[in-house]
UniProtKB/TrEMBL annotation:
The organism of origin for this protein: Psychrobacter coccoides
Residues making up the signal peptide according to the UniProt record: none
Protein name, entry field: Class I SAM-dependent methyltransferase
The keyword Acyltransferase is assigned to this record: no
Key word Methyltransferase present: yes
Pfam family, one: Methyltransf_23
Origin: domain of life: Bacteria
One GO molecular-function entry: methyltransferase activity
One GO term of the biological process aspect: methylation
Keywords on record: Methyltransferase, Transferase
């Protein structure tokens, strides 16, 4: 949370400097969303994705949860109603939302199990939970973990293999990347069924911003993966 408070502008700037990567990820975020649904965004950050979903896909998300006060302030200026605080301790009324999504926030949550439990209770019957993030087994996460271990992007081990404009090291340091299987197992343990998967960023991270990339089914090769499960 402290990292995002101190570097809220760096988060937005990085995405806006990597427009093709941003557009690829936005396509994946929109993939399992419905225009008419009541959607909660957990870890909504600055509301950048929510703003672009409304602009480019006519998908309007009004509610968010965000622990960083600085990020939440930006999201509120972009039209979200934000509950400021950790997802683990947030109070969400039961049977309220059609869709709950965690976009890029899973790796910054300490107790994901309790958050998934809360999401299950807060969803209406037939609703869906969507976890979207960089999986630990991906090329991006491997680079991020290496950069975190050496505490810099300016290291010989990362020379000629990292993106030209890498994710801010301050935000890399505070992440705990989880595998897709870990997330699926937690969702299954908390009652979610009928899983669907989608992925994008299918090239080496060095080339992720060269062009807008497609969204395809599965979770076996993408550096950004969406896992969708239903409450029945």
């Amino acid at each position: 949370m402290a990292a995002f408070d101190e570097h809220a502008n760096a988060y937005d700037s990085w995405f806006l400097d990597n427009q093709n990567l941003l557009a690829s990820e936005l396509k994946l975020v929109a993939h399992f969303l419905d225009k008419e649904s009541n959607i909660l965004s957990v870890g909504c950050g600055s509301g950048l994705f929510e703003m672009l979903l409304a602009k480019d896909y006519d998908i309007h998300i009004q509610h968010g949860i965000e622990p960083s006060k600085d990020m939440a302030a930006i999201a509120e200026k972009r039209g979200l109603q934000v509950d400021i605080g950790p997802a683990e301790t947030s109070e969400i009324a039961p049977n309220t939302f059609d869709i709950i999504m965690f976009n890029g926030s899973v790796s910054y949550i300490s107790d994901l199990d309790i958050c998934i439990k809360k999401a299950f209770d807060a969803l209406k019957t037939g609703g869906k939970l969507i976890l979207i993030d960089v999986p630990k087994e991906s090329g991006f996460a491997s680079l991020y973990n290496l950069a975190s271990a050496v505490d810099t992007w300016e290291h010989p081990l990362l020379a000629h293999i990292s993106p030209a404009d890498p994710y801010p090291i301050e935000l890399v340091r505070s992440a705990n990347w989880r595998t897709s299987d870990e997330k699926i197992n937690l969702m299954q343990a908390n009652g979610f069924v009928d899983f669907e998967y989608a992925q994008t960023l299918l090239t080496h991270p060095m080339y992720a911003n060269d062009q807008v990339q497609d969204v395809i089914e599965g979770y076996d090769r993408g550096d950004y993966v969406a896992i969708c499960g239903y409450k029945k």
